[in-house]
């Protein structure tokens, strides 16, 4: 159990012995009333939706420790705390907002863009973000890791136009490293696959996942390696995240970050500029700033395009070009992300 001190954020030492990430995963907070109690916000428990609005709360205790005690508007808290607004039915917000199921090619394989295939490697995440675009995804039926990745590998074998493999989820690093090794053995006889891209939030929310066994596996891969992190606010990054990013860079991986523009969380030019600067200090290049995928239950996070474009103008005036992420929207059926 953790407690957060009033007005303080707890930052773990980068030099402390690394805890077992699997144990930390098991110790995640899964009760919204408990989360509010840890932050001195127990008086808000009466505003929680029943049954977490159909999407279970899950947040690692280390991430809770980065939240501001007593602040109901803390930007990290707002990303994970269930809200009554999630129960509102809003026109245009649907179960599959980005056309995932229309892009299905095999079990857990989505093929949306030329030269790239995406594997739904896992249905689990260390943290359940309330704006998740796959919060309604049928993970029980669509898991590429099932059956030693057989269907996924067969699809890759049949299509030699695929040069880049993307691991997504859920979070692919929810899998044991031995399961990832199983995939890489299957890739060994697919010479047309030359690049591996891993989309993961774990180095940010559970940096202990980047342990020696994982980094040894990643470093040994004979592929170009890209790790795309997901952080939306500079307060998500601390010494532990910096150390995890350093371990990832030491494997030869390029590190990028994608964020989601979220009302009340990061829809502010100073906040977005601070995130870009903080990411770059950790050796991570800002990549995409996504307009919200219009998934059922997430409408209260939406920022309109006029406001989003004004924020981008403000960022371009403040930051060097390489620190300005690209503002994009994913539209089902299109050949790429659509610039906004």
Please describe what this structure looks like.
Helices cover 28% and strands 14% of the residues. The protein is α/β, with parallel strands linked by helices and 340 residues long. The N and C termini lie far apart (43 Å).
Could you tell me the mean pLDDT? 93
Low-confidence stretches: 1-14
Quick one: biggest sheet? 10 strands, mixed
Shape: globular
Q: Roughly how many Å apart are the termini?
A: 43 Å
How much helical structure, as a percent, in the residues?
A: 25-40%
**Topology order in helix (H) and strand (E) letters:** HHHHEEEHEHEHHEHEHEHEE
Task: Work out the number of β strands.
Answer: 10
Query: Which percent range describes the beta-strand content?
Result: 5-15%
What's the helix count? Answer: 11
Give the strand order, joined by hyphens, for the main sheet: 1-2-3-4-5-6-7-8-9-10
Helix and strand content put the structural class at: alpha/beta
Cα Rg: 19 Å
């Amino acid at each position: 159990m953790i407690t957060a001190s009033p007005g303080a954020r707890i930052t773990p030492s980068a030099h402390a012995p690394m805890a077992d990430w699997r144990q930390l995963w098991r110790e995640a907070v899964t009760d919204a009333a408990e989360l509010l109690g840890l932050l001195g916000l127990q008086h808000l428990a009466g505003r929680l939706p029943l049954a977490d609005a159909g999407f279970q709360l899950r947040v690692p205790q280390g991430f809770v420790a980065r939240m501001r005690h007593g602040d109901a508007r803390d930007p990290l808290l707002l990303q994970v705390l269930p809200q009554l607004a999630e129960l509102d039915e809003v026109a245009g917000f649907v179960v599959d907002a980005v056309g995932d199921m229309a892009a299905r090619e095999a079990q857990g394989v989505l093929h949306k863009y030329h030269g790239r295939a995406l594997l739904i490697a896992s249905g689990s995440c260390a943290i359940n973000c309330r704006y998740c675009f796959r919060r309604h995804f049928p993970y029980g039926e669509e898991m590429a890791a099932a059956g030693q990745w057989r269907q996924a590998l067969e699809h890759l074998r049949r299509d030699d136009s695929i040069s880049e493999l993307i691991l997504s989820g859920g979070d692919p690093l929810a899998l044991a490293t031995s399961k990832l090794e199983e995939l890489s053995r299957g890739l060994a006889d697919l010479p047309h696959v030359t690049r591996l891209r891993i989309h993961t939030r774990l180095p940010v929310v559970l940096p202990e996942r980047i342990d020696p066994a994982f980094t040894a596996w990643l470093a040994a891969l004979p592929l170009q390696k890209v790790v795309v992190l997901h952080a939306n606010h500079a307060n998500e990054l601390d010494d532990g995240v910096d150390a995890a990013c350093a371990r990832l860079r030491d494997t030869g991986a390029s590190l990028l970050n994608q964020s989601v523009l979220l009302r009340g969380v990061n829809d502010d030019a100073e906040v977005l500029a601070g995130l870009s600067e903080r990411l770059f200090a950790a050796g991570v290049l800002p990549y995409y700033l996504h307009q919200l995928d219009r998934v059922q239950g997430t409408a209260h996070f939406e920022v309109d395009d006029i406001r989003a474009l004004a924020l981008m103008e403000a960022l371009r005036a403040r930051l060097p070009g390489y620190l300005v992420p690209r503002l994009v929207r994913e539209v089902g059926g299109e050949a790429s992300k659509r610039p906004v």
